[in-house]
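My current task is to audit a protein record that another person submitted. My question to you is simply how this chain folds and whether the tokens agree. This is what I was given:
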Amino acid sequence: MLLLTCLCVQAQNPKPFVIPELKEWQGKKGDFMPTSQTRIVCDAEELLPVARQFAEDYEAMFGVKPEVTTGKSRNGDFRLSLKNNKKLGTEGYTIRIGSQVSVSAPQPIGVYWATRTLLQMSEQSENRSLPQGNITDWPDYAVRGFMMDCGRKYIPLDYLRDFAQIMSYYKMNTFQIHLNDNGFKQFFENDWDKTYAAFRLESETFPGLTARDGHYTKAEFRDFQKEAAARYVEIIPEIDAPAHTLAFSHYKPELGSKEYGMDHFDLSNPEVYTFMDALFKEYLEGDDPVFVGPRVNIGTDEYSNKDKEVVEQFRAFTDHYIKYVEGFGKQVCMWGALTHAKGETPVKSDNVIMNLWYNGYANPKDMVEQGYKLISMPDGLLYIVPAAGYYYDYLNTEHLYKNWTPAHVGDVVFDEKDPAILGGMFAVWNDHVGNGISVKDIHHRAYPALQTLAAKMWDGVNVTLPYEEFAAKSQLLSEAPGVNELGRWGKPGNLILSLPAVKAGDKMGYPEVGYDYTVEFDITAADEQPGTELFRSDNAVFYLSDPISQKLGFARDGYLYTFDYQFFPGEKAHVSIEGDNTSTILRVNGKAVGQLNTRTVYHSNEDKKAGLRVVPTLVFPLQKAGNFKAGIANFKVYNYKVSEKK
């Protein structure tokens, strides 16, 4: 009898791995097996958009698009329904996997999150089967977010769209877009006029304000927010003031402060209010405003507190823009600074959300007592500053997974699910303008952090899987349906492409290959024109003859990197290019003839603090072969560095 009991227990399906981890799982025996007749059946018309998105994502991942319909479900179907359940809150859901898959939730958002769970479970099975059992799942925190600094580095909208999809796949729901900022003066000859600054959004009110090296039109930014909202990701646009405002004082110098720095507004100048009122109005007014969602971040970060007068001016500025933006029907978010700017001028707190990043700037307990709701994003744990040498280049995901929840605001710890803590957010700050970091490099840092923090913001202290197992299994999940920003193909350690020859104009079947990789081929060189491409993708170009030196090199993100090597016409050689997240190496006939490594470049011999870590990395482009004359044979692409396995 004991043996029979043990066998029955062992026969129950184990808890499936998904990110974030399922709150409750009751395993049963057997599997649900989808077929060509499997449909997605909705109980309610309002679930049809969720069902259609589920069907499209299912097709993107598995090549099969289930029919979407309403009415009565049958065995083999997915059934989506709305059903009240106080335990689940707004975003929770249940899934019953048996002869059919039944999803229910109080709100459409919960049904949508359930479809993310089903897609993650399905992609871990070769035949898309699902283990039978019951799931009950809900988040511990309402805000599960990420902030991207688009001010110091232009981040193309296509990437932001992809990242919003990735966030959605992992049930992250808040994406803050930091639209303006500037570099550090010490890297620009200590001259504010030469210091890089950018405002990324089209402005018709102030022609010439918008950055020329990359910006978003109002129409496309509006569409981006709506597309993300359809996947239940809220975009929070941020215009940061009264500090970090060099882009505005470059445009209109009288706005800048000669005392506190031109990256600070002169808060004694009434033109500052005239300017900012008009700027916010451009994006907030009308029936279809440019800022679409319910919340807007007004900045208020890191202004000087040198004297009492400027502190009171800062507090008055903050209060004014809270009320001004609220006047357009938006809830205001802002950075925590009111301990740093402690004073007597009242600042509205009711219904205001504060990003808590450094407790010296805003003491969490004091802010709660004043009435603010908090988003936990402690800089010492959750700030990525690529290749800067401070904060984190890559987050310590093991520490975060084992120790952090949104209740931990730096060294201040609240009770789990304290109503004052809305949730958490991590951030990428592109502080070091001109350091060569690519969008692909940013993604290489942000994506693993997102997977980890998605688990911790949804489940808080309730994660049960050991970190090592979580980390290993997380790498096997897709970034999102149809999204592969990392450029990873196949199982690690494999040859992913082998062609006897490549001709001009050929398409490789892969857009690009990401870190770590090896691309190798035999070449019979020819006399190539300057700018002759070997391959290109939407993100990069690899040159057989770069446009300036006519040597081998590559370009991406506005940077051109050149290897000090070129071929003579008629020369025959074996070429290998290896890339990882710190370097790109060119080998010819087995010898390293060009090695571009991450290095520090100093802008001044006198000022050793003004050193940038320059990152010459490449996600190798494969989308289309260029118009070259050379003969390319025995072309191979590996998803690992071949030199390390020899």
User: Anything to note?
Assistant: The domain at 143-474 is CATH 3.20.20.80 (TIM Barrel). The first strand starts at residue 24 and ends at 32. The chain has a mean pLDDT of 96.
